[in-house]
C-alpha cells in the first residue's frame, strides 16, 4: 500500500545515501533533495563543491570508526535517521581462479560488510524511534551469478541473505528493509581487476568485461530509474522486500525462478556465448 506524504512531511524526513558522489547514489540524493527530503550524502573524500546541493559527510564503509562518526554526526545534526540508502560499492571483475582471497575479502568488505556496518549503525536509533527504512542497493548479481563476477555476486548474495533475515526479524515493528536489484546502470562504476590474470581465460574475460562495460556505460539503464524507485518505495507504508530494476534483470530473474537449473544454465551460456569461445587467445 502506498501513502503519499505531503511536502512538509518529507521536509522533516532524514535520508542518508551512502556513495552519493557519483552514479546511482548521486542520482538518488539529487531526486530526494528535489522532492524535499533532508538528504545527506556520503563520499570517502567529499569535495567542498559537492556539499552545495545537499550536505556530504565523509564515510569509508570499511572502517568502524568512519561509520560511527558519520552516523553520530548525522544524529547530532538532525536527531533522527528515517531512511538509509545503502549504496556505496564497487565491482571486482575476475574469474574465480583469478581471485585471491585478499581480493575476494576486499570485495566483500565494501559491498557486504560495509553495508552491514551501516545497517548495524542505524538500526539502534531507528529502533529507539520505532520507525526506519533500510534500502540496500543489491544487484541482478544478488540473484544470478554470471562468470567473472563471482566475488561481486557473492557480496550481493550475502547482502540479500542478511537483509532477508533482518526483514523477518523486524516483523511486528515499523522498521523495514528493501533490496533493490538493478540491471546494468549507466554509471561508470569502478571496476577492480585481479592482480594476476590467467592467459587461458583471456578471450572469455575480454568478452565478459566488454559486455559488463557496455551494460554499465552506454547501454546501461538511466540511474534516474533507480532513483525514482527509491523515491517511490520510501513513501510506501508496506514496502516489498525486493524490487527488480530494468527489463533485462526482470526477465533473467524470472527465468532463474521458473526454469530448471540445467535449462537456466543453457540459457545463460547461450546469451553470453560461453560455449562458443576458443579455450585460449
Ligand atoms: N552500475 C551498475 O550497473 C550497477 C548495477 C547493479 C548494482 N549496482 C550497485 O550500485 C551501487 C552504486 O554503484 P554505481 O554504479 O553508482 O557506481 P559508482 O558511480 O562508482 O558509485 C559508487 C559510490 O560508492 C562510493 N564508495 C565506493 N567504495 C566506497 C567505500 N569503501 N566507502 C564508502 N563509499 C564508497 C563512491 O564514493 P567515493 O569514491 O566518493 O567515496 C561512489 O559514490 C553499488 O553498490 C553497485 O554494486 C550498480
TrEMBL record:
InterPro entries: KR_dom (IPR057326), NAD(P)-bd_dom_sf (IPR036291), Sc_DH/Rdtase_CS (IPR020904), SDR_fam (IPR002347), SDR_oxidoreductase (IPR051911). The keyword Oxidoreductase applies. Coiled coil: none annotated. Keywords: Oxidoreductase. The keyword Nucleotide-binding does not apply. It comes from the Bacteria. This is SDR family NAD(P)-dependent oxidoreductase. SMART domains: PKS_KR (SM00822). Residues 13-188 form the Ketoreductase domain. Gene3D superfamilies: NAD(P)-binding Rossmann-like Domain. It comes from Pyxidicoccus fallax. It holds the Pfam family adh_short. GO terms for molecular function: oxidoreductase activity. Belongs to the short-chain dehydrogenases/reductases (SDR) family.
